[in-house]
Amino acid sequence: MLKVSHLERTYPAQPGGVAVQALKSVSLSVEQGDIFSLLGPSGCGKTTMLQCIAGLETPDAGRIVIGSQTVYSRDERTQVSASERGLGMVFQSYAIWPHMSVAENVAFPLLQRGRNPGREQIAQRVNDALAMVELAGYGNRSATQLSGGQQQRVALARALIHKPRLLLLDEPLSNLDAKLRDTMRTELRQLIKSIGITAVFVTHDQVEAMGISDKVALMCAGKVVQVGTSRDIYLNPHTAFAADFMGSSNLIPCVISDMGGERAIATTPFGQIRARAAAGLRSGDEAILVIRPNAPIVDARPANAQDDAAQVTGNVASVAFLGEKIEVQVRLPRGCNLVTMMNTFDAPAEGQEIRLTLPAERCIIVHRDNAAVSTAGDVKLAEVAA
Ligand SMILES: Nc1ncnc2c1ncn2[C@@H]1O[C@H](COP(=O)(O)OP(=O)(O)OP(=O)(O)O)[C@@H](O)[C@H]1O
């Protein structure tokens, strides 16, 4: 449905500033009917990407194809205008007009284009769009009489009124409070899926991306660094950045001391750990061992994993109460802290000795990159190598 190839966009330097390379040869493709998220930290290029797809920003190079239509190609000198791309957009601010009724807000794009389709047809299309977002019967209300979540649905109805082939959403939930955001995330996914439209969704919130998307493109500094389902990126990150941004992780510097078949051995400050390894790593490489907080099994040894699970012993440094779960920091040998999640009812005492089993299939060795190695204390890689 959408294919972006080698897209480049550099914002020219402002007086006294430097040029910003916002997109560096970005390629991705989105399947028909998928909700596809662009996820990454602030400034990584998500909005620039979305605006290039929308035709609101002109790339410097590359190609964008929507359906079978090339809407931008530098080589072919093609540039289809935003209004001719057949897209619907929902922005962070919703851009709902407070002085208009719900129906007038939704009808706005029909009247804007200067081809007024006639009262009856407008009313029919507004009613259809409102029904799609489950706001049938709300047309005569003032837009200000709606809750934040309902206003967001009005914005969605307005984006759908032209029956777009692709829906673009730029952080559409970020103005809602935390609890409503959770509800709306589920609701928005159900709505988009029931309409059957393909959607590209921009967010910097990994929980939001995981909850709403069929696929995620993880972006960092103008590049797409990994594409996959949320589950795939969570379970099989390629880099420390991907592990750190998608979920939370213990990132431990290590050296790969053996690589055989599906398992590798990571030499870490607290011993040798068997783990899976990301593609492209070799024996002798300096790398990062990723241990998700929910990976260790506390004070237990799985009966069927005797040879494939390392055991480490440490002391409880701190216990943080988070409701259903508690976060336990375990101080391991040579200054390493490992964060693990435990059931609230199993809370250990601070200072208590604790034994962790680390099954190999739950640990993964990934490529080093610039992600902060956050939980490994002050251990230096050189020490590990020694
Ligand atoms: N009009 C502009 N002129 C100059 N630089 C810009 C412009 N728009 C964006 N940038 C820069 O381009 C880079 C990418 O910005 P972009 O808005 O695409 O990132 P983002 O991932 O959407 O960030 P956020 O999540 O904060 O919205 C940033 O360094 C930003 O400062």
State the main characteristics.
21 strands, 386 residues, 6-stranded mixed beta sheet, Rossmann fold, globular, 9 helices, transport, 5-stranded antiparallel beta sheet, binds adenosine-5'-triphosphate, ABC_transporter-like_ATP-bd, OB fold (Dihydrolipoamide Acetyltransferase, E2P), alpha+beta
What do we call the CATH topology of the largest domain? Rossmann fold
Euclidean distance between termini CA atoms: 52 Å
Number of domains: 2
Q: Rg from C-alpha positions?
A: 25 Å
The CATH superfamily of the largest domain bears the name P-loop containing nucleotide triphosphate hydrolases
Strand content: 35-45%
Helical residues, percent:
10-25%
Subcellular location: Cell inner membrane
Pfam families: ABC_tran, TOBE_2
Family: Belongs to the ABC transporter superfamily.
Protein name: Iron(III) transport system ATP-binding protein
Itemize the secondary structure elements and their pairings:
Elements: E1 2-11, E2 20-30, E3 35-39, H1 46-54, E4 61-66, E5 69-73, E6 78-79, E7 87-90, H2 102-112, H3 119-132, H4 148-160, E8 166-170, H5 178-195, E9 198-203, H6 206-212, E10 215-220, E11 223-228, H7 230-235, H8 240-245, E12 250-260, E13 263-268, E14 271-277, E15 286-291, E16 297-298, E17 309-321, E18 325-331, E19 337-343, E20 353-359, E21 363-366, H9 381-385
Parallel strand pairs: 3-9, 3-10, 7-8, 8-9, 14-21
Antiparallel strand pairs: 1-2, 1-4, 4-5, 5-6, 10-11, 12-13, 12-15, 13-14, 15-21, 16-20, 17-18, 17-20, 18-19
Helix pairs in contact: 2-3, 2-4, 3-4
The chain binds adenosine-5'-triphosphate.
